[in-house]
Amino acid sequence: MIAKVSRTAVFFHAHPDDEALLTAGTMAMLAAEGHRVVLVVATAGERGLADLPHGDRLGETRMNELYRSAAGLGASRVVHLGYADSGLAAGGAAPDDRPPNAFIDADVEQAARRLADVLDEERADLVTIYDPAGGYGHPDHVQVHRVGRRAAELAGTPIVLEATVNRDPLLRALRLAGRFYRFPPDFDLRAFEKAYSPGSAITHRVNVRRYAKAKRASMAAHASQTTGGDGDRTLALMLRLPRPLYRLVFGTEWYVRRDLPPGTRLRHPFDAFPG
């Protein structure tokens, strides 16, 4: 009988709650399989929208939410790299009034070295980042791609997966939903036309329906991000979906692995392990 190999996966995100939206199901699955799961965030998300009376303590609140989310997913460790949330201005750019330690302004080599230290310490077999577009284009997400890819090079991490969404069915679903539902003010359908990745680029389609309950609990842990600005936000809308529909919509998580040929269709993050 061949013993199962336990590996280590590091999930690198820009802000608390990003893990819930893109990789929570995969994290819960790997932890359940006995792999070590480590969650790293660049910032505490202290410039995110929130109606609750957090004041200057929003970052602390969001980190506490992150710890609850990570615990529910089975993560063994949470790391904050210590950068400031760059914020988001109209049109998707970084605002001019961002703090001096904003992640978007960090030297890529220095930031990558910080992450590489974690990868080295953990002897990571895999690290997730974002696609070059940073998903929906948040400046901190684009920086995660740059920093994460360089960190993997420095640490020699064998697998780099770009957490993303299959843009093709997403656009179809959003256009259909727009006929019947008025989206929240923070939702811009046009932004999704160049967001994330086309289906032809995706190499991993990970079925996480068995872990939908854990993914939903991860989203719910980020209560501060369900309201803000003019009312309920997209996260709140996702949590209102009936459970069967939630499992259908969020039952797959997508990744792109650039060292594999186009047309590759894998089901597990550690499939096609190098060597």
Question: In a nutshell, what does this entry contain?
Answer:
The protein has about 280 residues and is of the alpha/beta class.
Describe this entry's structure for a reader.
The protein is an alpha/beta fold and 275 residues long. The protein has helices at 18-22, 24-32, 58-73, 108-122, 139-155, 167-177, 212-221, 234-239, 243-249; strands at residues 8-13, 36-43, 77-83, 126-130, 159-164, 204-207, 227-228, 231-232, 252-256. The protein has a single domain (8-255), classed as LmbE-like (Rossmann fold), CATH 3.40.50. It is built from 9 helices and 9 strands. The strands form 2 sheets. Strands 3-2-1-4-5-9-6 form a 7-stranded mixed β-sheet, with helices on both faces. The protein has a two-stranded antiparallel ribbon with strand order 7-8. Helix 3 (58-73) packs antiparallel against helix 7. The model has no long low-confidence stretch (mean pLDDT 89).
